[in-house]
Amino acid sequence: MNRKTLRFSIFVLALVGLLACNYLNRATPTPLPPPPATQAPLEPGNAPPEAQPTQPASATATPAPEVTRSLSVAYVRDGNAWLWVEGGQNQALTSSGRVTDVRLSDDEAVVAFTRQVDDFHWELWAVNSDGSNERLLVGVNDLEALPDITREEFTRAIVPARFEWVPGTHQLAYNTQQVGEGPGQFLSDDLRLVNADSLERITLFPEGMGGQFYYSPDGKQIAIVTPTKISLIDSNGMNPREKVLSYPEVMTYSEYWYYARPVWAPDSSLLVAAIPPQDPLAEPRQPTTLWNIPITGESGRLAGSIDTTAFFASEVSFSPDLSRIAFLRETGDPALNQRELYIASNDGNEATLYHTASFLQFLGWAGSSDQFLFQSGDPPVYQVGRVGGDFTPLPGVPAGYFDVRFVDDQRFLHLAEINGQFDLQLTDMSGNSVTIASPIGTPASYDFVK
Q1: Looking at the DSSP assignment, which residues form a beta bridge with residue 74?
Q2: What is residue 69's predicted lDDT score, i.e. its pLDDT?
């Protein structure tokens, strides 16, 4: 057992002792606190101190009620957080600006967001979806004071990297990164939680023990990803299953590490992953491998392999039900930027050449897993594809589409670039669009719940 594995094992044992009694209890949601008389000023380090290990209630999940709702979209417009509810009005949730990214809780009650403090620092905040109780969750001073992070010489700040709601709760999970004046991403490979109701915080995995994180849809398990492995652990800190899939470091040809992106089955019963070759540009090209990862702790099983473009040009896309994949291959004269779009079963078999065109990009699967959206040409033409069928142009598209996300079988959200500005739109497969916000400015960020 190497030193890092030993550290992981010792830490997990300590974490189990800390969380086993309370974390697994998913009690009735606590009511949101009333708005304070005055909003917290925009100053670093105003968050409450991190919860001590003797108070594991800070990790107690607060599940959201399961109620059928219409589409709700949180987004950033001109530096503030906004909320749009289908059939309702747009509402500004903040007014002091500097908001850069947003996440909407499953029950649509809270919007978490990052707020920039200066050129190097940003913080985690939250606000209720009615615009009340804007509060600081994790401040600059809290991040700079994290005792487990070894500061690099180039580091100007320690900041939140990725943040996501734990499914069905008001717990916000996040990891951190060190930033300097140059390019690149330097993740701390940690994982932390902050409760948006109580404001209590806990470290699930300190630096070097976590990584990128992917909660199962039911919120009960976490896939922890590093540049060389995928591990699993229950979200209460118990039942660690280390290295269910190991892979060699993948060259990115840039200043960041590659982290695999596993995809959970809708019922949380397994994961799948597409792992690029160690050198994505090697000649002859090496295959991308496809894996099924059980949640039992068994090692991932190789399902198949495919020849595809380098992952930084276009990644393999699994359909929502995980039955199919879409991927691209380069073809012909490289100067013409021609690519082939293939649709295959999830093990790479039965691969069918669907279309060949220049500047081809796969944009996403519809919720039904039998339709998808892709673009080709310059200027781009947007096409609705059908598994086993032909494709048809998406009519009435006056702009470039970016950040496409399907909300159901027939509709998708996206950013539309018009005259150098971005609109946030909801469009159906017949090309009918509703503009949610115009323009939304930069940075452009949105999140939705349906």
Answers
A1: 83, 447
A2: 65
Q: What is the mean pLDDT of the chain?
A: 87
Predicted TM-score (pTM) of this structure: 0.84
Structure tokens at 449: 């719940």
Residue 150 one-letter amino acid: T
Determine the length of the chain. 450
Nearest in space to 192 (alpha carbons), one of 175, 169, 178, 211: 175
State pLDDT tens for residues 201-234: 999 999 999 999 999 999 999 999 999 999 999 9
